[in-house]
Design goal:
By secondary structure, the chain is α+β, with helices and mostly antiparallel strands. It has 7 helices and 14 strands. Helix 2 runs antiparallel to helix 3 and helix 2 packs across helix 5.
Length: 304
């Protein structure tokens, strides 16, 4: 649990808000201070906490809501709470919210997630290119859990050929999967020959024992039908390494640290079951503006 800050205001938030009064350093004896940011709330504040990385501020207000802001003061949204909640605390990144209710003497723990804006320019896409619902997948080719997601996503695409697309982003967990980074570069090299998905499928079809073979990547590239001279050049190129680094940075910016991680129109997927993903797709379609709505919402797939 985060230790609560002992100050009574929000004046320690580290960035001045746009349009705020100019920053004026102050001092009294050996104490110096500078107001970095300040903003007005829509209701009386009762309690607040900040995430350990100082990226998010959670303010419990007297209107039975928790207001969530970035450290720069951008409002991310609100979380309704029961009347009588008088204290809050959070997990390090704000992924769990803990509430104390002084009215009914109760304690509650709430799971919290945040929608993300993820850059998919240049990412390989499976499905209709202009589909209104995008599933972004951060994945590691040597991760056994990632390979198990593949048939789930294939079924989703089969059930929603006109409304869903899948964008693939690389996140090799090299510390536990030593071949994941070379495999990711191999898939990027294959993409340059318009054979990303052939390489993708071939890598995910490898067995655990296959990953111990020294010539694994080259053998798999041959099976995927790649021009090997061009493949080796692209596989080791600085451009390929930079593209991989961009995906890893995008994962960090989206608070992704594990694979597989999925997002449906920017909303994190916490339950990767087909039923849960189907429900998220239905909700994403329903949330589209009228002009972007498909002519008819697809019926949910029947339970197996």
């Amino acid at each position: 649990m985060l230790k609560k800050l002992l100050c009574c205001s929000l004046l320690l938030i580290p960035v001045q808000l746009q349009g705020a009064e100019p920053v004026v350093p102050s001092a009294d004896g050996n104490v110096n201070w500078t107001v970095k940011a300040s903003w007005t709330l829509p209701a009386k504040p009762i309690d607040f906490v900040q995430s350990l990385d100082n990226k998010k501020v959670f303010i419990l207000a007297g209107d039975a809501k928790v207001y969530v802001f970035t450290a720069e003061g951008q409002k991310l949204g609100t979380v309704p709470v029961a009347a009588g909640v008088s204290a809050i605390d959070i997990a390090p990144k704000g992924e769990m919210l803990y509430l104390l209710n002084g009215q009914d003497n109760s304690y509650s723990a709430m799971d919290v997630s945040f929608n993300q804006q993820i850059d998919i320019s240049g990412a390989p896409i499976r499905g209709k290119q202009d589909a209104p619902v995008t599933i972004v997948e951060f994945s590691d080719f040597q991760c056994p859990f990632c390979s198990r997601v593949m048939p789930v996503l294939e079924k989703v695409l089969a059930d929603h050929p006109d409304t869903v697309r899948v964008a693939f982003k690389h996140l090799p967990l090299s510390r536990i999967h030593p071949q994941a980074e070379p495999a990711a570069r191999a898939a990027i090299a294959a993409q340059k020959q318009d054979k990303f998905w052939e390489m993708h499928d071939a890598l995910f079809n490898l067995t655990e024992s296959d990953w111990t073979k020294p010539d694994l990547i080259e053998t798999t590239a041959k099976k995927a039908g790649l021009d090997m001279a061009r493949f080796v050049t692209d596989w080791n190129s600085e451009e390929t390494r930079m593209k991989l680094a961009k995906d890893i940075m995008d994962a960090q910016n989206a608070d992704v640290s594990a694979t597989p991680s999925l997002f449906v129109n920017g909303k994190p997927v916490q339950d990767r079951s087909p039923e849960a993903i189907e429900k998220m797709i239905t909700e994403a379609l329903a949330a589209l503006p009228p002009a972007a709505q498909p002519t008819a919402l697809p019926a949910p797939a029947p339970a197996q």
